[in-house]
Amino acid sequence: MGNRQMMESLMSQQLNRRTVLRTVGGSAVAFFVLGCGSGVSNQGPAAARYGPPVPPDGRLVTRWRQDPFAFGSYSYLAKGAEPGDRSVLAEPIGERVYFAGEATHRVYPATVHGAFHSGRSAAQQMRVAGLDDIVVVGAGMSGLSAARWLSDEGVSVAAILEARDRIGGRVFTDHSLGSAVDMGASWIQGINGNVLTDISDRAGIERLRSEWANWVVRDAMGEVVALDRLPSDYVQVVNVEMEYAADVAQLSAEAVEEGGGLYGGDVVFPHGYEQVVDVVADGLDVDLGAIVARIDHDANGVVVTLSDGRTVSGGAVLVTVPLGVLKAGGIEFAPALPDEKLGAIDRLGMGHLSKVFLRFPDVFWEPDVEFFGFMGEKRGLFPYWVNMMPYTGAPILMAFHAGTPADELGGKSDDEIVATAMDVLGMMYPG
Ligand SMILES: Cc1cc2nc3c(=O)[nH]c(=O)nc-3n(C[C@H](O)[C@H](O)[C@H](O)COP(=O)(O)OP(=O)(O)OC[C@H]3O[C@@H](n4cnc5c(N)ncnc54)[C@H](O)[C@@H]3O)c2cc1C
After folding, report:
1. pTM for this structure?
2. Cα–Cα dist 214/193, whole Å
3. Could you report the per-residue pLDDT of 138-170, keeping only the tens digit for each?
4. Terminus of the chain with fewer CB atoms < 10 Å: N or C?
5. Residues 316, 97: Cα–Cα separation, whole Å
6. Which residues are near ligand 1 (CB < 6 Å)?
């Protein structure tokens, strides 16, 4: 979700994602820590006192692990998995069942642009194979980019079937706090050469740059911690676990090396990521509330059965549901998926990163600092906060939690989750 870009900006604008993460994941963490200290000082904010927090007057909580149409936030390379598993996941089965989605993309997994490219690439393969009358399952970025390309190329799309009552999948903007806040993806990660930059440019969608080096870390006593004194295991929480949405112990050694990064820094959408989705989806006819339960396929075509018993026939199907849905066996395939694909689904990991948004009557934190780290005792428990004020103009904080703590919190009520977040804020800003 962008921490790798924070590391990049702290260390050097020249390093790429893989280099940076290899550095943090391997023995050179100390180099990163020293690198932070040499380039950035957060001693200034220590002089001023902020807080204590007042009760929030608005809140939003996500639970991506519990979401029945995602079962997690995004994929990662788990222990025992290898990058080739993503290719296996992407492979068609039979002649008429194709797959796309962020988890299938070897170069940009776990990102919105990776999802976009995966959908487009599957659509291109389907056209090359001479397929037509295509049923697209899922209207997230991968399904929409596929349907968009097929339609633009004159390949007929039989239906776009989306289980939710909205499009966008893991790109989802909420406006109920009076500002646009993104419950799933927030950032274009690496703007140079990014297809999402092109789309946003063409549509005139406003973006704001995130300055990852503009951050302050506080400990459980509310003291600002000098960046050159951060313990390496804290750097790993804040960076690796939040980035991969999984505990370090769950990651394959190759996880931090797979894929490629884009340069140019990251941007957010002050009026919501949904604007990009809307551009891609423009003119497409999406069947909302259509939960796909079963796909029958043979050499002649496919029959897709919805949970309400309706059926949709087509010449081929493109399945773009998240890895979490495939892991849960959410769709029955007849004939069944081959063992090789089932193995890849099993081995790849589906991580959990969730967010809590808290709106306050007024700002009680450093108004000009973009990111706050919390160095508490429990790894992954609200270690990372985003000041939404610079993006939305509203006194809103966004807190992340990831991995096992996120799974534990996900089973609790909104009141309990918010209370835990407020406890952390209280430690960060004792007043
Ligand atoms: C909290 C969070 C933060 C993130 N931050 C970033 C970020 O800052 N930058 C970034 O680039 N990426 C980020 N990501 C990842 C990014 O959101 C995803 O990689 C991308 O949106 C996935 O797109 P997709 O099309 O592959 O899947 P999805 O968007 O999940 O689309 C799949 C669609 O399939 C539908 N579906 C599921 N089951 C069925 C069914 N049975 N029948 C019919 N439809 C079904 C779903 O409802 C969904 O709409 C984040 C994700 C999360 C959750």
Report:
1. 0.92
2. 25
3. 999 999 999 999 999 999 999 999 999 999 999
4. C
5. 6
6. 1-2, 64, 69-70, 73-74, 101-102, 110-112, 115, 137-143, 161-164, 169-171, 184-187, 189, 291-292, 320-322, 325, 330-331, 353, 355
